[in-house]
Amino acid sequence: MRRYLLALLAVCSLSAAADDTWKPFPYDQSAYDYSGERLREAWPRLTRGFGDYPFPDADWVLRMATEHPQALEQTVAGNRGFSGKPEEAQRYAEQLQQVWRLVFRGDFAAAKRQGLALGVGGQVPAMFAQTLYAMFLAPDQAEKHRLLEEVIAYTDKAGELMQADSVALFGRAYAKARLAEELPVPVVLKRGYTSQIPAELDALLARQPRQPFALALYGGYEAGVIRKVGKLVGRMTYGVSAEQMEQYFVRSFRAADDLPIGHYEYANALGYVYGDDEQAKVVAQLKRATAIQPINAMEALEVAHAKQLLAEQAQPVAQR
User: What is the pTM of this model?
Assistant: First the structure.
């Protein structure tokens, strides 16, 4: 146990100095101020993509400490400011809430740094911030892959609390799915992503069958497999199909239809599976994504990405 704790603490204490070089959030952040009680009030909407995700107040901190003693041991051993005492829970919760404010505002480097300083309890928003930075702001593909691989490694090593947290579990599956899209098939197979991604999403959806992000990711994953190996091999070897892909997105939109990422993921999936045959639907989905008013930095980046994809769709039409 001691060896495990020391290894974990070593991971959690990795230098964050490199994060100071992260590019700043490129858009106006004034609309994403969730200071004070604004965070609690907006929490259900800010986290709607994750389904029913609890607000990290003092009661939540104490409950997690009671239900996950291993995580509490790690926090105590790392001297992270919380030893399980009720009088310490409020202060720890306030620090954790501040990390989430940084995530929603787009201060990703600060969110990672301050989150990891809280130990395993702050790792969830810290790695969420890193995932967003990797996907939208990383300077090149190599850095993007490195950051996503680090998210997976952090989550794997964090222990029982991460396995109980739906954001952490989604983040790991999301990182693997994004890597699987861009890595060569032999590498994806060697890493086991083709079995790990559906297994992890199945486990997450067994607990939260209406989580919009997980449902959209599953649909996107199936489309990505079809894109790489074709419909026949995809169905026979990996159990994916265009029909299942469509149903995952139907379920995601039923749960939440106002998430930019859901609509542009569906647009991508349509292109992967049907090519130019569904271009009109692709454009319609991208237009729906761009029409959404973002309520946090993540959604602002997603809307901007959807606008870029929409512009790319218009280029071939203009050239004909």
Answer: 0.90
